[in-house]
Amino acid sequence: MAFASLLRNAVVGIVAAVGAVVITFFIADAISGPLMASQPGADGPQQVPLGGAVFGTVFGGVVGTVLAFITSRMKRSTFVFVLICLIGLVLYGLFAWTAADNQSTGIWLNVMHLAAAVPIVGQLTRWVASRPPVVKTETATGTDASIDSTSTDDSVSSD
User: Which among 17, 41, 76, 137 is least surrounded, fewest beta carbons within 10 Å?
Assistant: First the structure.
């Protein structure tokens, strides 16, 4: 049941992110003209395709979903998940600045990264935060064992 909830949150976040990226892409194209960026190994700048932006958004959402699942098993899972996402967003932002042909393209690529990240990370963070914390307890032999806590915590809501 928890996995179905994760997938539902992921799909909602990814669909919202794709919509936001498509809208941002068309606004950028209308205001600044075609977005030109240099791909690694390319001879010169090429136009950023809408399909590439959509694929990157979906791929990032899938990676974020896997990351949310993995970090939900850790202590301080919400903090760890958000921290990793922020580090990833900053690194992608740096890549956008270095790949962009001009400053306008760099700005629009970073706006698209934010438009993709906010709904995906928001939905997945909500799911990670709703998971019960992993609690270490002492076994009868006196050694530590990791046991999932199934007790409910009234301060965490499962929206």
Answer: 41
- Apex CA 69: angle with CA 63 and CA 72, to 5°? 130
DSSP letters for 1-62: -HHHHHHHHHHHHHHHHHHHHHHHHHHHHHHH-S-EEPPTT-SS-EEPPHHHHHHHHHHHHH
Percentage of the chain with pLDDT > 90?
A: 67
Q: How far apart are CA 86 and CA 122, in angstroms?
A: 12
Q: What does the pLDDT average to over 59-88?
A: 95
What is residue 149's three-state secondary structure?
coil
Do residues 96 and 48 lie in contact, with contact meaning Cβ atoms separated by under 8 Å? no
Q: Are 34 and 47 within 8 A, CB to CB? A: yes
